[in-house]
Design a protein that fits this description.
The protein is an alpha/beta fold and 323 residues long. It folds into two domains: 3-207, Alpha-Beta Complex (Spore Coat Polysaccharide Biosynthesis Protein SpsA, Chain A), CATH 3.90.550.10; 225-313, no CATH class. It has helices at 13-24, 44-49, 66-76, 95-105, 145-151, 164-170, 182-191, 225-236, 241-264, 268-277, 279-282, 285-296, 299-313; strands at 3-9, 31-38, 56-61, 81-84, 90-91, 111-119, 138-142, 160-163, 196-207. Strands 1, 2, 3, 4, 5, 6, 7, 8 and 9 form a nine-stranded mixed β-sheet that branches. Strand 1, helix 1 and strand 2 form a beta-alpha-beta unit. Helix 5 runs parallel beside helix 9. The termini are far apart. 41% of the residues are buried. The model is unreliable at 210-218 (pLDDT under 50).
């Protein structure tokens, strides 16, 4: 079997049938679907149970979070590759076929992905209206994911497939108990070991949150756990030497974003603390601009500027929050 598609399900009854329809409409048919119900209470699991296609398997677990659900699905997978799909997203009919094409052209990659199409969560926009695409997409081989990520966000969970043998070596793949950045944690760890093959065609539709962003936002002025773990791997020598500099640089870029957020919130002293932490790995134009903000710009002006920048970059979202 070529693909196992793992779908974590928690209270997504209005969406799960359409999501599964998009999978069952794939032009490549060598796959199984593992829906891991994470203690849903809205009847979504029952809707999955009504599907007669033998390729769809429903398993249940007590509510333990999206990371545990995905790890459970990985453990049950039988395909050579594991593809991930959230219960409210949608795959283009040629999604799996394109992944297979990319794998053949970049056999050294353990992670293969496509671009994605952000779609507002309104009835008028679904099913997604796919743009015209070239018969053969451009294939980008990413060897330095942290630096590539700062250019533009690169991977979205529902548009990623990973070699199952690699995932089994890394279990638990997704950090248990985490639901913010738990996917990025895995993508960056995978990219430290092997290249990522990215097919530039939007073959997954991502359902945007009500606020129009790819994430719901996190107000705490703290390093996300996945970035802190990346920073510690770099400092301890636990990652390949060629990857350490860019990993520390990405973590420092996020520290600069935290500095700007603190200044915007009127916490100028905290902003300076984050700025000083980033000074070695991120000293450059962005560091000096943030220092100028800390010295001369009032908090409301920094906040308005940050919001303007974010609006310009949406629907993209990155670890540095486009700051």
């Amino acid at each position: 079997m070529k693909f196992s598609i793992v779908i974590p399900l928690y209270n997504k009854a209005p969406y799960i049938s359409g999501t599964l329809d998009s999978v069952l409409a794939q032009s490549l048919v060598d796959f199984e679907v593992i829906v891991v119900d994470d203690g849903s209470t809205d009847g979504g699991a029952e809707l999955v149970g009504f599907i007669a296609d033998p390729r769809v398997r429903l398993v249940r677990q007590a509510n333990a979070g999206v990371s545990a659900a995905r790890n459970h699905g990985i453990a049950l997978a039988r395909g050579e590759w594991v593809a991930f799909l959230d219960a409210d997203d949608w795959h283009h009919p040629h999604y799996l076929a394109t992944l297979l094409w990319a794998q053949a052209r970049c056999p050294e990659a353990d992670t293969v992905a496509t671009d994605y199409l952000p779609v507002p969560d309104t009835l008028a926009m679904w099913p997604p209206r796919w743009p015209e695409m070239a018969p053969t997409p451009q294939l980008e081989v990413v060897t330095d994911l942290p630096r590539r990520w700062m250019a533009s966000p690169t991977l979205c969970t529902s548009a990623v497939s990973v070699r199952r043998a690699r995932l089994l070596q890394m279990q638990p793949c997704f950090p248990p108990g985490e639901s913010h950045g738990e996917d990025l944690d895995l993508w960056f760890r995978l990219a430290e070991q092997a290249p990522v093959a990215l097919a530039h065609a939007p073959l997954m539709a991502y359902r945007l949150a009500v606020d129009g962003s790819l994430s719901s936002g996190h107000a705490a002025l703290a390093m996300p756990p996945f970035l802190e773990r990346m920073r510690q791997r770099a400092l301890s020598g636990a990652m390949p030497p060629a990857r350490r500099g860019s990993a520390l640089w990405l973590a420092a870029q996020y520290q600069l974003t935290l500095a700007r957020q603190a200044i915007a919130a009127g916490k100028r002293r905290e902003g300076w603390a984050w700025l000083l932490k980033a000074r070695r790995a991120a000293r450059g134009k962005r560091w000096w601009l943030t220092a100028a903000m800390a010295l001369f710009m009032p908090g409301p002006l920094v906040r308005n500027w940050q919001q303007w920048r974010l609006r310009r970059t949406l629907p993209a979202a990155s670890p540095a929050e486009a700051g």
